[in-house]
Amino acid sequence: MDEGMELKGCVCRIKSCAGQLLSMEEDLVTDLDDDSWDLVWRDLRLKATFLYIDLSRVISRSENDERRKALTLLANKFFYCTDELGDAVTSQSVPAMKMCYNDTAQALRELLAALAPPQ
To answer: Which GO biological process categories is it annotated with (predicted)?
Structure first.
């Protein structure tokens, strides 16, 4: 497969998954029953896994060392926030979840901005 096409596919999946994560806010801030908490946690983990795989491909194939380092820092921040959000979901704490979701969403927006091609 053409490497450029693979990277375009990775970026497309990243944007799609990011859009889904950013739209999860309503699901996260409502009262959930026990089964819903588990589904939200699993959905969050699944999305984070796909993002991890695609981001690692994009970062490793980045030709500019400075860009690679910047993307790595932003990705690490995002995954740290995602882990914190997962912990909040596991504890079923809506206030903690709201705070962690906001941090995760902000880190994801910063990462998406950095992935955008330079103007």
So the answer is: photosynthetic electron transport chain
Query: CATH: 3.30.457.10, 1.20.120.290, 1.10.1240.10, 3.40.710.10. Which one for 3-115?
Result: 1.20.120.290
Give one DSSP letter per residue of the chain, joined into a string. Answer: --HHHHHHHHHHHHHHHHHHHHTTHHHHSS---HHHHHHHHHHHHHHHHHHHHHHHHHHHT-S-HHHHHHHHHHHHHHHHHHHHHHHHHHHT-HHHHHHHHHHHHHHHHHHHHHHSPP-
Q: What pTM did the predictor assign?
A: 0.88
pLDDT at 1: 56
